[in-house]
Amino acid sequence: xxxxxxxxxxxxxxxxxxxxxxxxxxxxxxxxxxxxxxxxxxxxxxxxxxxxxxxxxxxxxxxxxxxxxxxxxxxxxxxxxxxxxxxxxxxxxxxxxxxxxxxxxxxxxxxxxxxxxxxxxxxxxxxxxxxxxxxx
Amino acid sequence: xxxxxxxxxxxxxxxxxxxxxxxxxxxxxxxxxxxxxxxxxxxxxxxxxxxxxxxxxxxxxxxxxxxxxxxxxxxxxxxxxxxxxxxxxxxxx
Lengths: 136, 93
Ligand SMILES: [Zn+2]
Fold this sequence. Notes:
The structure holds two protein chains of two kinds.
Chain A: E1 2-4, H1 6-19, E2 25-33, E3 36-45, E4 54-56, H2 59-72, E5 75-83, H3 92-96, E6 104-109, E7 116-123, E8 126-130, E9 132-134
Parallel strand pairs in A: 1-3, 1-9, 5-6
Antiparallel strand pairs in A: 2-3, 2-5, 6-7, 7-8
Chain B: E1 2-6, E2 20-24, H1 28-38, E3 57-61, E4 64-65, E5 81-86, E6 89-91
Parallel strand pairs in B: 1-5
Antiparallel strand pairs in B: 1-2, 3-4, 3-5
The structure holds zinc ion.
């Protein structure tokens, strides 16, 4: 399960809306407890692929985030990105390129209003949906 | 020349769980080749067969992404810290 605050959920959606017409993306930072995680912050990234069909986190944003969590004792929990015209589910490319089986993969679909936010685990090319708990 | 290389979590199982290693080499290409020789389980995850950088690996010398400073030819000095991180990317197709 992934625990988020309403502010973090809204910040992910806002980042993705600002990136339109391209896919938006960013990293989630927080605490890990076994298979569960609690996000305390997002780090928006430019989509360096600058595409409506592809995303890539800026490599400098990535390095800064990893350096910071090392210093703070927190963790990079995963990544969020948007699908502008398709559902909130990882594409075959998203699955193939998933960088870390320990991560949580958040999909933000902007196809419909309101935006749909879902979270997944991706291990050995297998996608599993997980619950998002919104902690008020 | 020996530089420190920080290993990302995804590569650690194939490298005995190490978080950092010290590697000889005066360029990024030499360092990554040496790493692959020492830890054959990571073969193909750092460099392509033609010796270019793997598309889904980010390599940094200190604060610089090596793509902007010469790629595999980027120079590595004695006290440099090299960081490896998986590229974070995806696509609709
Ligand atoms: Zn996607």
